[in-house]
Amino acid sequence: MRHLWILALITAALVIAGPLFLDRFTVNVLTRSMTFAILAVTVDLLWGFTGILTFGQAAFFGAGAYATAMVLTHLGSTPGLMVLGLVLSIGLPVLLAAAVGWLTFYPGASDFYATVISLVVPIVVTQLIYSGGTWTGSSSGLVGYFALDLSLGGYFRLAGLSLVAVVVAALIFVRSDAGRVLTAIRDNETRCAYLGISTQKVKIALTAVLAGVTGFAGFIYANSSGVVAPENAGFVFGTQLVVWTALGGRGTVIGPALGAVAIDYLSAQLSGQMPFLWQLVIGTLFVVMIIFMPNGLAALATGWRRMRRPADGVSPELVALPPRAGRGGPAGAEPLLQIEKLEKSYGSQKVLEDITLEVRRGELVSLVGPNGAGKTTLMRCMTDGKVASGGSVRIHGTGIHGMVPDQIVACGIGRKFQVASVFDSLTVAECLRMARVSHESPSFLRSADSLSLPQAAIEILRLTGLDQHLGREVSLLSHGQKQSLELAMVVSLEPELILLDEPTAGLTAAERATIGKVLVRLTSELGLAAILVEHDLDFVRDISSRIVVLHQGRLVLDGTVEEVVNDEIVKRIYSGGDHV
């Protein structure tokens, strides 16, 4: 962090001194370029860090620029009106982005849908500008208004220092615990939802805040250029921002900022020297960079750092949390989970039919059946209130119908998937912190030096050896370590009921034994309930308190281990096989 502040101070000093030794043309062009670079940073935060490819930042920039220009043109340029222009240039894009985000990031919406909407928004805003008549200047834009009383050098310093501030703030944020949530959403949005994180709210909030930043850039642009035009809010400009971000190196913050400044300045120089060929030259440069440096210029520096980085980074100190009030309880109490006449159909085909089941604290219920029996579908119905076609699922007597996964997690349900669902770009410690986001608000300014987890999660880490690799990137872990990490993440949620879909798939005998010990302790000693989907009959026999058999979408048996293993119906279903 010290290096960041030193670099920021050096850059700020260069910006302040810049107008003293740069010619007028260069100062003018770089003022615009640095303003555009602010927009490129916002695109990078959305695309590079969160995985939302957006072309809509131009629309928010244009809205901010036009809000300023309209105030200065039609109302005046007194200090009070200048403040009004600043407020509107930030507030209007924020409101517009919040509305667009609400329409875009609904539960289940795809990333492709969000990208399409971001293509439409600049077109709509541009058409509004065209139809604004004298208020917006229509196709001619607005020009000739009185702006801030600053010299050309003053605008250069304003744009440059604003860019430095935005870059520093962005770098501090993305390195913080809260900033890592963006990377988690990019890597695995489904897992985020099943950790209780409302990805919809995060995306809407991020879009709105960054729209405010682009609106502020629009305020600077409207004042420094003295003219605003529909092109400032258009689709073409939005595409340019994406290209600059890609060529600079998305996911780096500094790369897109430098890319925007360099490419816009180069374009301005070439357009004067080669008026008929400059676009061909720029286009050729783009193609060459895409072929030879597909990850952008900044990838050269980041790749070098990765080569020098050790496999295990800095490991935070593990701290055990006290048990949460209301979690756990005596076994055999009132049902924790109640399923009544549950059904799931795909058209005329019924996958689940008339499923009725109860689970109490302290029970480890194994859900078995042949492939296609509906086991995983039943898991989905218990963790997503929009999946079931009929019947009811209640937790503590409260129905979950219509709830999305993050709301159901808040009711005390944790789910482990069949294929380890983790965050490959994060470290082990950062993955575990994601499981605590729904309980503890992460810092926006720093990454914590300690990692506070429930005692049960810490024991999983110690049993599996992951406590020695908290600073290791998850992509470097083995299959078994990823399975253990996901289980530790689910336990870190402090759920009352854990759903596990084949947690021992692909594990060695020693790893299966470790997972079995953990599950038995969670249920028998800590009072949690667990539903386990498993094909290994020996594993099921050793740890289960009950076994539930599904066959062709129907519950055919619910009993003790001995009752199920010796039942004639079960023997007929599996024809005496060793695995269920």
Automatic annotation (TrEMBL):
SMART domains: AAA. It comes from the Bacteria. Residues 337-577 form the ABC transporter domain. It is a multi-pass membrane protein. The keyword Lyase does not apply. The chain crosses the membrane at residues 81-105, 112-135, 155-174, 204-222, 276-300. One of its GO terms (molecular function) is ATP binding. PROSITE patterns: ABC_TRANSPORTER_2 (PS50893). InterPro entries: AAA+_ATPase, ABC_AA/LPS_Transport, ABC_transp_permease, ABC_transporter-like_ATP-bd, LivM-like, P-loop_NTPase. The keyword Transport applies. Keywords: ATP-binding, Cell membrane, Membrane, Nucleotide-binding, Transmembrane, Transmembrane helix, Transport. It is found in: Cell membrane. This is Amino acid/amide ABC transporter membrane protein 2, HAAT family /amino acid/amide ABC transporter ATP-binding protein 1, HAAT family. It comes from Allgaiera indica.
